[in-house]
Structure formats: structure tokens, C-alpha cells
Amino acid sequence: MEKFHQEPNIFVGEVNIKVKNLDYALTFYQNIIGFQVLEKSDRKAVLTTDGKNPLLTLEQPEKVVAKTPRTTGLYHFAILLPSRADLSIFLQHMIQTGYPLGAADHYVSEALYLNDPDGNGIEVYRDRPSSEWKWNNGLVEMATEELDGNGILAESDAEWKGLPAGTLMGHIHLHVANLKKAEEFYTKGLGFEIVSYYPQAAFLSTGKYHHHIAINTWQGEGAATPLENSVGLNWFSLVFPNEGARENALKQLKQLGAPVTEKADYFVTSDPSGNQIRLVL
What is the DSSP letter of 189? Predict the structure, then answer.
């Protein structure tokens, strides 16, 4: 794996989503996606791939309601596999389960797309080596082309044993209400750079990754914030390399007028569309 998800970069560490039925969702995330359970209570399950670090947490809110359409929040979270062979094993497993799947070649990566039983979007992908990415005027070339499924399947005939230990939370893609306001928040507030544009969407990263965060207005300009107890994104974490980098971001967020709350060992902020972010070290 390349070094886009470690210091000195700022990257997504963990995603926390809300589901309607925890046990049902857990069956999907273990048997279809391949996570392991790190800890579980009545309404919450923390999932891992290496037995140590949480990557995804599922929560079942009180009086939970289905995903609200045409709102801001999660478009998808993206699970980054260590290699093309790992993607091959995963694709073979998906074909065997018969679970509905989409696919795309984005030049920088090869990706599979699916929704969990509650409609939370998931991408499972592998990166092409960054030496193969093409940059023009500070923007990386990305597109949506047909995936070479047969080529991927030919990479490995190993048995599926769940997500490999080296799996990371590669990026998160969010629905926002206003693209310009969201761009300002993530660039001037949190220190990300815009590295690609797509119709009504922008892709942002640190350290010249193809994207750690994507934002779009595909649910409509001015889309409403979802209900507190609705299925969807609860929060995601951004990992900062050190206290100084986080302090700098906090100062910039306050200058923008963004909300900042201090908790025991992290800070909480929200983008202008209400997507909640934990700033961790």
C-alpha cells in the first residue's frame, strides 16, 4: 500500500453509520462484506479487519426511521483493499453470493459499488499505483469507464476469508447542500486540496491522493439535513498527523464560523451541510 493514509496526510480513519436493525446489518457486514466484530452491545457494533483498529461502526438509534430521500449525508464510504488480487477474491465472493453490484474503472482505481440492506452506499476498491495516475494543472485525471471484470477475476483463485488485515477506509463521498460552501469548509477549514472536478462534484485530498473526501450536490442544491434518528451517516473521523496540524485546523474552522466542540480525546465539527466529523490524532 502507498503512503496516502498515514502522516503527514490527513485522511479518513473510521466511519459510523446508522442502521435500522443492528443484527440484520451485522449479518450483511460480516458475511457479505467480510468485517470482523471488535465489540458489540445491544445497539452498537464496532467492526475491524485487523482485530485492533475500528474501521466501521454500526449503530441502531432509538425510534430509528428509514433513510430520508433527497437529503445531505452519506453517498458512500469506500473500503480500500491492499491489492488487485484482493479485489479479485472479493469480486469472486460477490458473484457467489449473487448480491447486486455495480462497477467502474476510474483510471486511478478499480471499484465495485453496492448498498447495504438500509441503502447506505459502499465502494470496495483497489488503487492503481500512483505512478500511473495522470495529473494536469494540479488536477488528477479520473473518469467512469467499464471495469475489466474478467481481468480482475484472473488475478487470483484464492478462497475468500473476509476483508484482509491491511484494508483501510480509503475515502468518503458526501451529499452536500451547497458545493462552494462545502469546498470552502474542507479547503480553508480543514486543509484539503481540490484535486478533481466532476459535474456537481469535487474531489479533495491531502498529499496528492486522488481523493480522501468527495462532495456532491446530486441530491439537489439546498438539500435538507436528514433526521437525527434516520438511517445514514452518523459521523466520520479525520486523522491528523499531530497536535499542531489539528490545532491549526481548529483555528481555521473557528475563523470560518464552523462549530467546534471539545470531547475527551477528540474534537467534533460539522460541515455546512450538517455532516459530523471527529478530528482525531
Answer: I
